[in-house]
Amino acid sequence: MFKPITGAAAVTAAGVLLLAGCTSTGPSDSQPQSAISPGASHTATTVTVWTFNHLPNEVAAFKATLNQLHSKYPWLTVKFVPNKDDAAYAKAVAAGDPPDVFISSVPDNVAKFCYNGTVADVGPYLTSAKIDAAKTFPAATLAYTRYQGKQCALPLLTDAFALYYNKQMFKAAGITEPPKTLAELTADAKKLTAKNSDGSIKTYGFVPRSDYDVNRYLFTGAHSGTDFYAGNGKTTFASDPKWQQLLKWDQELIDYYGEANVQKFVGRYQPHADDAGNPLLTGAAAMELDGEWHVGEIASEKKDFDYGVVPMPVLDGSSGTYGAGSTLGTVAYLSAGSQHKQEAFFALQQLTTDTAFLNTLADTVYNVPTTFAALKAWDKRDDPHWKPFVDIFENKHSSYKTLTPAGIEDLDAWRAFLLDYEQGKVKDVASGLAEVGKKVDDLNSQSGQ
């Protein structure tokens, strides 16, 4: 399972990344920007690969593939180091001793690392290796691995987000099909809400608060026909009325349940979003937004659970396209400071394009493969619970927010505003949106955009 860093971890990473803003060791001009010929004779070389992965089954999958790579190409040895995050990577770069390849759980710092020279543009290597990125990787992945025309990273598995719903509860409530708009979602949520004899809420139809589980991806634009940034690079929070419409929908559903009840729900179930105590599985919620990894978790925790998966509904009257969604995933970087870029890219190439490895890793961590070839060969692509995520991933309208050199800091500012708004601390929505928009614009300006 690849879950994006949030909260304190994200803030810590962002703080460390500021230190690394201009401390990249930079590319070595003496190294050719071309792929090596694997069949030619090569000097024995060891490259280091860091990854955020740390669970035993994940580490085993990586090591098995890297051992196979060494068996096939004895001249290449990969030193594999798990459990490293963006903050650790930034520190290594600042110290002038980065790993040759770094695999991150989220793409939020792609533009930052690319802008400040921390990572190399792998475009020339792809061209030399005769790998056409557009024909190899779905467009959704290229949106979060490129910046200003540079291929700053390569995708390695992806996450998509969809609406999970309890089929038996839908049937009991007389709902014959899942919602396609947020207004329909609200109407269904109210029908599905059940109370105990004392008036307390037994089952919530849907809890939208932005800090619960992965609900933050409701507010990044894919479901409301919006984007953080206009063509001029400035935020759209104040200029695009759909942001106010989206926040109004959010607040009205929170008000229906009561802020105190929603706070209680988040506090109780946040620690159990990914285990047997998940509210969808216990009957405490009839619907929830979640990532594809939850399919695997349900199979492990409650395999007989009768549920459906559909695209997340879109904002009524917006240009959001039903069937599309938020997509983002793991990214793999080639360090600009690597002393063995050709060999490191060769290892990176194997990890990100080898179909057998991608599908094995996808099955291991309950993610979606990230090449057309791997998706075509994947035995889960037509499974009724997995197929919606594959369809969302392949939908040409699926996207992630525009990346900027501010890295994850723009999202941190936005999420802090959302929570303040949902907790009643923002009295004037229009002014609040203008204020957070300016704050994010200032962050981007300071970072060099």
Strand content is 5-15%
Average pLDDT score: 91
- What sequence of helices (H) and strands (E) makes up the elements? HEHEHEHHHHEEEHHEEHHHEHEEHHHHHH
Number of strands: 11
Question: In terms of structural class, how would the helical and strand content be classed?
Answer: alpha+beta
The DSSP helix count reads 19
Main sheet specs: 7 strands, mixed
Query: How helical, in percent, are the residues?
Result: 40-55%
Radius of gyration over C-alpha positions, nearest whole angstrom: 22 Å
Overall, the morphology is globular
Which residue ranges are poorly predicted, with pLDDT under 50 across at least 5 consecutive positions? Answer: 1-28
Distance N to C terminus: 33 Å
Account of the 3D structure:
Helices cover 42% and strands 12% of the residues. It has 19 helices and eleven strands. Strands 1, 2, 3, 6, 9, 10 and 11 form a seven-stranded mixed beta sheet that branches. A two-stranded antiparallel ribbon has the order 4-5. The chain has a two-stranded antiparallel ribbon with strand order 7-8. Helix 2 links the parallel strand 1 (45-51) and strand 2 (76-81). It is globular. Mean pLDDT is 91; it is low at 1-28.
